[in-house]
Amino acid sequence: MRTEAPFRHGTPQKTAVLLVNLGTPDAPDTPSLRRYLREFLSDPRVVEIPRLVWWMILNLFILPFRPKKSAAKYATVWTEAGSPLLAIGHQQVARVCEGFKDRRWEVKVELAMRYGNPSVASKMDELRAAGYDRVLVFPLYPQYAAATTASVMDAVFQWAAPVRNLPELRFVKHYHDHPAYIHALADSVLTHWRAKGRPNFDGGDVLLMSFHGVPEFALLKGDPYHCECHKTGRLLAEALGLEKSNYRVTFQSRFGKAKWLEPYTDATLKALGQAGTKRIDVICPGFLADCLETLEEINQEGREDFLHAGGGEFHYIACLNDSDGAAAMLTEIVAQHLQGWPVDMGYEDAMAAELAASRRLALAMGARDGQST
Ligand SMILES: C=CC1=C(C)c2cc3[nH]c(cc4nc(cc5[nH]c(cc1n2)c(C)c5CCC(=O)O)C(CCC(=O)O)=C4C)c(C)c3C=C
Ligand SMILES: [Fe+2]
Ligand SMILES: [Fe+2]
After folding, report:
1. What CATH number is attached to the domain comprising 158?
2. Which residues bind Fe(2+) (predicted)?
């Protein structure tokens, strides 16, 4: 148990939300990748192989080779603001803060990464030191998986173990079928179709929904991830008015030799290309933010697989990122989970927020009027 500051009576009740995503290396270079992959792949939630056997495989066969290859891939998607996953995460935090201001809510929003920086423990420490006595932990994965969502929960419990005076804690488990999530996804597809034209589904075009894979044994051992991905796929197809033959649900990013959830995205892309499919649109609904797995694996490698195999047009539909749909959805889901916790601003802050909101509205209307002339 750690030594803590003495308890004080009468401290105001404050609420915080911690958005958590997977994590990313600090830089697209081999040492950073080795550090990141060591932490990520040492998590027993991620690789469920007996520890001693896995320790040998990881240290003898993976960490000497994979970091260099992965660093080269990260370099192709790295931006001036750093890793896309982290940079977009910060934008998402800003959008949720805006959403709260509009609701006249005073809720602190922070971002943490399950692996790498900023760590879950460092953010929980900061929140506790600043007196946040209620924390909603929101793993940003729409579909629950032990390898991702439960691992975020583990990180919070590990942080909590030596703490005496714990904050109240809540967790979002998943939102794979939340109407605001499905609506945001459908809206992003429709926006893409408005800009690029709607695929000719009667002519065999396909909307491919690619989710990150997990080993097949996870499904057999009771992990709901596979079912939740399929439910998201079905609800998105319904929202778009698609027939079953118009879309596919596939799984990407296979790691290691075991059988993973099928059908695999890369094999499907090649098969669709070989079948002479004229156009496919690819969306990755399981990723809230664009990252290596979407920008490199799908939009670069997947595109090449499809076109090389003889496919026609390849369209990549970006993740929800910091879109209005993502902002509305995140704010809505957080609001539902904060019920009963103190969130309201004091009078003066509420007035300032009112002013800022009317300024934003005036600016938006000005921009709209400017566009239409
Ligand atoms: C969206 C959900 C994710 C699940 C489920 C998931 C499971 C999972 N992943 C690996 C191995 C790797 N994943 C890597 C990158 C990566 N994975 C996710 C998301 C899920 N992973 C994201 C968002 C990212 C990208 C992070 C970024 O910085 O952009 C990597 C690292 C990259 C590489 O070296 O290829 C590995 C390795 C396993 C083993 C697993 C489930 C059991
Ligand atoms: Fe992954
Ligand atoms: Fe299933």
Report:
1. 3.40.50.1400
2. 212, 293
Q: Is 293 labeled as ligand-binding?
A: yes
* Joined tokens for residue 241: 């008015």
Residues 167 and 202 in one domain: no
Known binder of ligand: residue 9? no
Rg (the chain; Cα; Å): 22
| Host domain of residue 81 | 15-176+325-352
d(CA 237, CA 246): 9
Q: Whose CA is nearest to atom 18 of ligand 1?
A: 22
- Counting the structural domains of the chain, the total is 2
Q: How many whole angstroms separate alpha carbon 272 and alpha carbon 276?
A: 7
Tokens of 354: 């009112």
Q: In angstroms, what is the span from residue 359 Cα to ligand 1's centroid?
A: 41
> Which residues, judged by CB distance below 6 Å to any ligand atom, belong to the binding site of ligand 1?
22, 24, 46-47, 66, 70, 83, 85, 141, 145, 147-148, 212, 214-215, 253, 255, 286-287, 291-293
Task: Tell me the pLDDT tens digit for each residue of 169-213.
Answer: 999 999 999 999 999 999 999 999 999 999 999 999 999 999 999
Distance CA 338, CA 17 (A): 9
3-class secondary-structure state, position 111: strand
Q: Which ligand lies nearest the alpha carbon of 115?
A: 1
- pLDDT, one tens digit per residue, over 21-76 is 999 999 999 999 999 999 999 999 999 999 999 999 999 999 999 999 999 999 99
Residue of the nearest CA to atom 32 in ligand 1?
70
How many residues are recorded in the chain? 373
- Looking at 270, 298, 317, the residue that finishes a domain is 317
Q: 3-state DSSP helix/strand/coil percent for the chain, to nearest 5?
A: 50, 15, 35
CA distance 142 to 175: 5
- Looking at the fold, whether 249 and 107 belong to one and the same domain comes out as no
